[in-house]
Please model this.
Amino acid sequence: MKRMKYIVKTLKYMFKNLWCIILLGLLPAFVYAGAFDFIRYEEFLSEFFTGKLLECTFSDFFCAFSAINVSQWYLAILSVIGFFVSCLFMAVMIALIEKHMRIGKRTLNGIFSKLNDNIVATVVVAFFSGIVYFVWIFAVSLAGVGCVAIFQNSAVAAYIFFVLLLILFTYLMLYTISRILLWLPCQLITGFRMFESLTYAAHLVETKKNPMLLALVLPYVIGNVVLGVCALGGTITLAPVVFFIYLFFFLYLGVLMEVAYFEEAQMEREDLKPAYKRRRV
Model:
């Protein structure tokens, strides 16, 4: 249960305060769902689960996993817009949650004035995380075409090695993100410079890698399994699933960063106290 503490505390905060944070995730989720490449994703799953892995190309692997829809130029632009929209609303949500945990208030007073500081840091951290994600996409895509080329006469071997490499690269991606998960709240709360806050964030999770990693792995796996299963129902049923999964991930990551930072920095959370015990500010 101790290894699940971040998941439990994050979900507890999310559902307790859902009414005041969910509005911040609706537009990012809507834009992302609109830019999602439903056709290529469903085609890849169909080929994968019907024994046609050897027919997949680099483009099939890349488009199925990519967060940027490159099938049409306007969808690619929409994907980029979605990135900046997500950064904007994440910056607001982080400021709101941080204020709530620090002084016990959920008001919007002073939240938007912090955007000048928050938005730049949020974009930088999101961009760096995006690089990690796209390195994973290229690695998985290269692994896929490599398995297809090497095991052209043995579909079973191709499947086994591809799945093993997929698990390995996914672990490395989530491990890397777990090490920088506290980078953003560290910058915004401590006021450290970018490199100093990254070093400090990595130090905070140095002895907490397992709980932090599990807090990313479990929802990531469950979300992708749900998405994959629902993809069998077709594009019409998949669109709302993509929307709600991205909405959940968006809110979950924002809350997880703050929950984990307050926990590891050993900061007292005012939102957990009764109103009469909170600090007066």
